[in-house]
């Protein structure tokens, strides 16, 4: 794998969702969820994607992870063009990019123990991991997110929302990825819990050299975690820039409108403090 290439390059992605045909002989209508979207993410960098609901953020996240196939454009991860790879090569590449979803209740299988849930990507993507190593990886990963190795034998319902999101993060980390795609990863949490999970994500970034594609509708959160911000509107990139500059002097009226709609934008960067 080419280590001088950017971690992730997204080039001119266009993705149309087909909608149900309204009349028998009419061409099937479509909805353009991504329209010529490009971005670059360096190793260790954190890029936020912001935009209103329906702007295409989750579609972009899924397409970057090759869970959705675009009509046009390329996703190049670690120098590999993901949609040009044979299935077995793509499977090998998947361990380098993992997703953390929004919902800490819905995204964890309630019938499975935490150890099984956390190890699932390892079991699916890395062959030949011996059971002792597997156990050690589960324990090490749980500890890295502030949980205990013994938590592997518990069920998700024994944990709070914030702890469940730590489990979801552990699950994303167990294959030792370079890229984490976080789609509204703290949006379902209370503000004080949100602050703890954001601090964890920032610590992990430093400790493990992770890159984040951090998707959020919440600009206060974005300001704390991102180096750069990309603003999506109706599937198009309307503005992109360094986080401080973009917050200080947004160029596009849409970005200004988004910023004007945020009440707690005055929060400090980096170290997040819980609201009183
Ligand atoms: P966001 O995450 O920013 O809220 P999404 O990427 O989920 O936006 O959706 C972008 C647009 O694509 C929305 O208009 C949404 O209704 C539409 N969309 C998303 N998924 C599908 C799908 N599977 N089929 C048809 N339309 C979809
Ligand atoms: Mg979404």
Low-confidence stretches: 265-272
> Strand portion, in percent?
15-25%
Bound small molecules, by name, code or SMILES, are:
adenosine-5'-diphosphate, magnesium ion
Q: Please list the strands of the largest sheet in the order they lie side by side.
A: 6-7-8-3-9-10
Extended strand count: 10
Average pLDDT, all residues: 91
Radius of gyration: 19 Å
- The helix-strand sequence is EEEHEEHEHHHEHEHEEHH
Termini separation (Å)? 47 Å
Helix content: 25-40%
Q: Structural class of the helix and strand makeup?
A: alpha/beta
Shape estimate: globular
Number of helices: 9
* Main sheet specs: 6 strands, mixed
List keywords for this structure.
276 residues; binds adenosine-5'-diphosphate; binds magnesium ion; 6-stranded mixed sheet; 4-stranded antiparallel sheet; alpha/beta; globular; 23% strand; 9 helices
Word description of this protein:
- The chain is of the alpha/beta class.
- About 35% of the residues lie in helices and about 25% in strands.
- A hairpin with a 2-residue loop joins β4 and β5.
- It starts with 7 loop residues before the first strand and ends in a 16-residue tail after the last helix.
- About 5% of the residues have low confidence.
- Magnesium ion binds next to α1.
């Amino acid at each position: 794998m080419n280590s001088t290439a950017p971690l992730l390059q997204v080039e001119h992605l266009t993705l149309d969702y087909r909608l149900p045909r309204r009349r028998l002989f009419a061409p099937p209508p479509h909805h353009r969820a991504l329209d010529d979207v490009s971005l670059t993410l360096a190793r260790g960098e954190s890029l936020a994607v912001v935009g209103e609901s329906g702007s295409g953020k989750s579609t972009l996240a899924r397409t970057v992870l090759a869970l959705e196939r675009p009509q046009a454009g390329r996703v190049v991860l670690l120098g590999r063009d993901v949609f040009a790879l044979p299935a077995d090569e793509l499977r090998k590449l998947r361990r380098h990019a993992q997703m953390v979803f929004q919902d800490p209740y819905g995204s964890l299988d309630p019938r499975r123990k935490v150890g099984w849930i956390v190890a699932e990507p390892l079991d699916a993507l890395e062959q030949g991991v011996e059971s002792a190593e597997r156990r050690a990886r589960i324990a090490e990963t749980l500890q890295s997110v502030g949980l205990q190795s013994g938590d592997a034998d518990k069920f998700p319902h024994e944990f709070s929302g914030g702890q469940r999101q730590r489990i979801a993060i552990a699950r994303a980390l167990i294959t030792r990825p370079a890229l984490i795609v976080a789609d509204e990863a703290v949006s379902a949490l209370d503000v004080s819990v949100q602050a703890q999970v954001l601090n964890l994500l920032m610590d992990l970034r430093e400790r493990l050299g992770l890159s984040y594609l951090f998707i959020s509708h919440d600009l206060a959160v974005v300001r704390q975690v991102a180096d750069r911000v990309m603003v999506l509107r109706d599937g198009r990139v309307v503005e992109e820039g360094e986080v401080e500059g973009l917050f200080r002097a947004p160029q596009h009226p849409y970005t200004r409108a988004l910023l004007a709609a945020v009440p707690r934008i005055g929060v400090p960067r980096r170290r997040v403090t819980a609201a009183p």
